[in-house]
Design a protein that fits this description.
Number of helices: 4
Largest sheet: 7 strands, antiparallel
Strand order of the largest sheet: 21-20-22-23-24-26-25
Helix content: 10-25%
Order of helices and strands: HEEEEEEEEEEEEEEEEEEEHHEEHEEEEE
Length: about 375
């Protein structure tokens, strides 16, 4: 009898555990099965169709079962629904409009869930004016963008992109676009950010992203930005390897050199400059008051303690110099320079973009 009671007790525990596991599994499946919210359509735009009509266009939204077009109602002071589009519809024409008036629109996606429309948030606003062929006020036609440096930036640097709106054709000379404001955005803000003046700031991460400018009516133009770490070149294409101590610095101490150059690229400060030196007792002086300086303390020590020549490392907000002295007075030396803003394009001893060397001694 005792064994039977014990067995029933064990089987009861097992049953309870299995039942709990089954309930947990069902709950997790229900959670996982919860539909993701539908996203609003991309690339919403509005263009002139005639003097009394405008065409609103958009891209397909993933898993959307249809679209809702909203138009701003001035009297109600809000956006009101004016049209519901089918799943495969990508445009809609708003007709019977007043000529010379500006209209504003937004578009949302929806998904049918148990017969009800689950709507996305509304898209960004687009606006356009209806006008004749002799209008003084017109809409944006295209955007032209320009960035120097072949669209390439170093990490933690800044670049200004110029944006220019080209207006729609009009028989009246020099028509005016209803809004010359551009809305700027980055495809990946972990690589580069852009403010609403078109000023791009590269982050500490290498990679490629796209900077986009959008006009009032949704017309877009994007420009590709390659963000690279000039402090850590993959090769030295302009150097033939003819100087012994340059070779040592760029091979044996390569990572240490790159780590130091990268640190000062990220932590550049106009008020901070100085020189790392090692005294006769092995103490290193010259550490600046900058955040996370401990990141490069070991790199500095390795170079100053082990490099075969007397060495100093100069740093500023613009430049890092690795000075290798052939005598303690420094009357003959070899120097490797890293310039953050690269003013060494014509330097004879060019190593790579932003890198150069100077030799005042025997090889």
């Amino acid at each position: 009898m005792r064994n039977n009671k014990k067995w029933k007790s064990i089987t009861g525990v097992i049953y309870t555990l299995l039942l709990a596991a089954a309930i947990s599994c069902c709950l997790s499946k229900n959670v996982m099965a919860k539909p993701k919210p539908v996203m609003p359509p991309e690339n919403v735009s509005v263009r002139l169709k005639s003097a009394t009509s405008l065409r609103i266009k958009w891209n397909k939204a993933d898993k959307a079962d249809g679209y809702i077009i909203y138009k701003y109602n001035k009297k109600a002071k809000k956006y009101v629904r004016v049209h519901t589009a089918k799943k495969n519809q990508r445009s809609w024409v708003d007709k019977n409009l007043k000529t010379g008036k500006i209209y504003r629109y937004k578009v949302a996606s929806y998904k049918l869930v148990k017969g009800k429309k689950k709507q996305s948030r509304k898209s960004y606003e687009v606006s356009a004016i209806t006008h004749t062929k002799r209008a003084k006020k017109v809409n944006a036609l295209i955007i032209s963008l320009y960035a120097n440096r072949e669209n390439e930036m170093g990490i933690c640097s800044e670049l200004r992109i110029s944006g220019n709106i080209i207006e729609e054709d009009s028989k009246i000379p020099n028509p005016v676009v209803i809004s010359d404001k551009l809305v700027w955005s980055s495809s990946d803000e972990s690589i580069a950010r852009v403010d609403q003046n078109g000023r791009v700031t590269a982050m500490e991460k290498e990679g490629t992203c796209y900077i986009t400018a959008r006009a009032h009516n949704g017309v877009k133009k994007k420009i590709k930005m390659n963000i690279v770490n000039y402090a850590r070149p993959k090769s030295f294409p302009y150097y033939n390897g003819g100087y012994k101590y340059v070779d040592i610095m760029l091979t044996t101490y390569r990572e240490n050199v790159f780590n130091i150059a990268t640190y000062f690229t990220v932590n550049k400060n106009e008020d901070v400059w100085g020189t790392f030196k090692m005294d006769e007792e092995g103490n290193i002086t010259g550490y600046p008051d900058l955040d996370n300086i401990a990141e490069i303390e070991e790199d500095v020590r390795i170079i100053l303690a082990n490099f075969p020549l007397v060495t100093e490392i100069f740093y500023s907000n613009e430049r890092i110099e690795f000075l290798m002295k052939y005598d303690k007075y420094g009357s003959s030396y070899c120097r490797i320079d890293y310039c953050i803003d690269d003013d060494m394009s014509d330097t004879i001893g060019r190593l790579a973009p932003h890198w150069a060397y100077t030799q005042f001694s025997p090889m």
